[in-house]
Design brief:
Chain lengths: 240, 404
């Protein structure tokens, strides 16, 4: 479903992502684990066609990110950490509608989808309220709904829990698992091993732009003879 | 690039901006009331000032000439025909002038009666204060009144000799103003209006442009937007058209404000100086050309505004850049503001902002030079293309799109 092949991204002389390859099969959650500045966001931005790789390539659902970026974007939903990125002066429904329209949905399909999402996320009370009037938790729900309005097959999450309190982070985890249960393929970046361990089928550890290790949790444990993944992470990242 | 995507973005941005109080105030409300307000303030001020200058012109006689006979002469022969001049008694006329109690002092020879009788010139001295506008104006008013008195005496003497008064007027001059539309002196129309239109259209998109790129980055809505299906070109064009639309909205707002002002008070277009507004006939083709030039000006500035808003690292920085742009637009505007239609040169028609000012001055001045108008339109279109290309190139640059 997702194929990253030797992705390299240089900003001037600085190599932010250095020859990163991995693949994610349908319905899988792939965790990209790394410290601050490791290159997670840059990698995800290349998958999302926002940045052009200096070399290498990525193929999502059979579409080449460089040759058919529009088709790729139509297949992906994105939730980036920190702010929810809603338009304050628009209502929740208008925010969701905008992204639905941009992703090629018809008006009637969007209306039906909003009704469905509002029910699923418990947003019926505030779906017609302006985003500026909502609580943090409500905004987060709206952001979830917006990211999947076009029912994408692939979801990219960039540190979606950074800066969130425990309950909000759990809501994000639930949302990710819900996406998985709907058969979506997920790439998810984090700097917390416990979070990755909880959610991911497979992980890749990225350090200074290089993918230093990847595999299923079991594979990694066996390979390194270590049951404590947190310690493994520190060792891998510290060693290089 | 897809038109459908452009329209989706445009529609959303317009809806979003219309809910932004700041945009509404600076792009719609301000342009609408600006000219009427300037009129009321400036027009009212000028009218009041003119009234003050011409009415209640207080004068006093100097101490040495303050005799009942002189007073009588002044009352009868000068003041009776100039009711706006008032003769007052002053203990110390020089002091009174200093304290603005009177505006000038008349000194008239006490022997005036005999001299008048003998046909000799009477010496009248007019003391005033050149440093005071009102005193200066009063000196003119009073000396005109004295001239008239002098002419009357001449006429009386000629009549006494049995001659026709025309005998002393071998030549009569009649002046005729041939300025088209008779607007030579019309400050509002020829100076303020072209300036206001050009500046407001040039800066009208600023709040929108700040909001639509720098604002989106600041609020973290830009990155999700970039991951939707449309390509960057469509997103840019949608935003660009929204900004252009708001600069045009400013133009419409000005015209609406003007029309309302005119309906309420037809003199409101003239700042109270020149109230002849009848007989303006605007050349329709020239008006269309000028409006096209104005639209192109709005588009050019929208392109620059979007570009600056994209380059800026933060919302604040975008505001700073765009205030500089506003100043930059003012310079050519002010440079041409006080020019008259006859002062326009072809160079002005190829400079942004100046060309719009010049086009409107030309139309309001009445003598149309189509070559210059077309020149202005063609160069404006080139500016539109260049600035749009510049903005588009920025939207493709990863360095400016993702700064963090
Ligand atoms: N547009 C850019 N221009 C220059 N350097 C950049 C740019 N974007 C990222 N970088 C640099 O590339 C490196 C990787 O950044 P990236 O954002 O991918 O890291 P990250 O793993 O997401 O880190 P974090 O946990 O802080 O989000 C960093 O050193 C960053 O400074
Ligand atoms: Mg990051």
């Amino acid at each position: 479903m997702i194929e990253a092949i030797g992705l390299v991204k240089k900003f001037g002389d600085f190599t932010a992502v250095d020859n990163v390859s991995f693949s994610v099969s349908k319905g899988e959650i792939f965790g990209l684990l790394g410290e601050n500045g490791a290159g997670k966001t840059t990698t995800l931005r290349m998958l999302a066609t926002m940045l052009k790789p200096t070399s290498g390539n990525a193929v999502l659902k059979g579409y080449d990110t460089q040759k058919e970026p529009e088709k790729v974007r139509a297949q992906i939903g994105i939730l980036f950490g920190g702010e929810t990125g809603l338009y304050d002066r628009l209502t929740v429904a208008e925010n969701i509608t905008y992204f639905g329209e941009l992703n090629g949905m018809s008006r009637s399909a969007i209306r039906e989808r909003i009704r469905q999402l509002a029910q699923a996320f418990g947003m019926t009370d505030f779906v017609d309220k302006r985003a500026s009037t909502l609580s943090k938790g409500m905004k987060q729900k709206a952001a979830f709904a917006r990211s999947i309005v076009h029912d994408p097959d692939i979801m990219l999450f960039d540190e979606p829990t950074s800066g969130l309190d425990v309950t909000a982070a759990r809501d994000v985890h639930d949302f990710i698992l819900r996406c998985k249960s709907e058969g979506k393929t997920i790439v998810f970046s984090s700097h917390s091993m416990s979070e990755v361990e909880k959610l991911c089928d497979r992980i890749g550890i990225i350090h200074k732009g290089r993918l230093v290790e990847s595999g299923t949790l079991e594979e990694l444990k066996i390979k390194h003879g270590n049951n404590d993944l947190e310690e493994l992470f520190v060792r891998l990242v510290g060693a290089k | 690039m897809k038109l459908k995507h452009v329209m989706i973005v445009l529609r959303k941005e317009v809806k979003d901006l219309l809910r932004d109080r700041r945009t509404i105030i600076s792009s719609i409300l301000l342009p609408m009331i600006l000219i009427p307000v300037i009129n009321i303030v400036m027009g009212g001020g000028i009218q009041k000032f003119e009234k003050d200058m011409n009415e209640n012109v207080m004068v006093a006689l100097s101490r040495s000439s303050n005799s009942p006979e002189v007073r009588e002469l002044v009352q009868e022969r000068i003041l009776s025909k100039n009711p706006n001049i008032v003769l007052v008694d002053a203990e110390d006329p020089v002091k009174a002038l200093e304290n603005n109690e009177i505006r000038c002092i008349l000194e008239i020879e006490n022997s005036y009666a005999e001299k008048l009788e003998d046909g000799q010139p009477i010496q009248i001295t007019l003391q005033y204060d050149e440093s005071k506008t009102k005193s200066q104006a009063a000196a003119d008013i009073v000396s005109r009144a004295i001239d008239r008195f002098s002419e009357e005496v001449v006429e009386e003497r000629i009549a006494a000799l049995g001659l026709d008064p025309d005998f002393l007027q071998p030549v009569q001059v009649e002046r005729k103003n041939l300025a088209p539309n008779d607007m030579g002196n019309n400050m509002m129309l020829q100076m303020m209006l072209p300036f206001m239109i050009s500046i407001l259209v040039a800066v009208g998109g600023i709040p929108a442009a700040t909001d639509l790129v720098a604002g989106e980055k600041e609020r973290n809505t830009f990155e999700p937007l970039l991951t939707t299906m449309p390509d960057r070109g469509s997103l840019l064009l949608g935003k660009y058209l929204a900004v252009t639309l708001f600069s045009m909205v400013s133009l419409v707002a000005i015209l609406v404000g003007l029309s309302i002002g005119y309906i309420i008070n037809p003199n409101s277009l003239t700042i109270g100086i020149d109230t002849q507004l009848q007989g303006i006939s605007l050349d329709p083709l020239a008006v269309v050309l000028a409006l096209l030039i104005t639209v192109a000006l709005g588009m050019t500035f929208s392109g620059i505004q979007i570009a600056l808003s994209t380059i800026a690292k933060s919302y604040k920085e975008a505001q700073t850049y765009l205030s500089f742009l506003m100043l930059a637009a003012m310079v050519p505007g002010y440079a041409t503001m006080f020019m008259q239609a006859s002062d326009l040169s072809p160079v002005m028609f190829v400079m942004p902002v100046m060309n719009t000012v010049a086009a409107f001055k030309m139309i309001l001045g009445g003598s149309i030079n189509y070559f210059n108008l077309v020149l202005a339109l063609v160069t404006s279109i080139i500016f539109v293309i260049l600035t749009l290309m510049f903005a588009a190139s920025l939207f493709k640059k990863e360095k400016v799109m993702f700064r963090n």
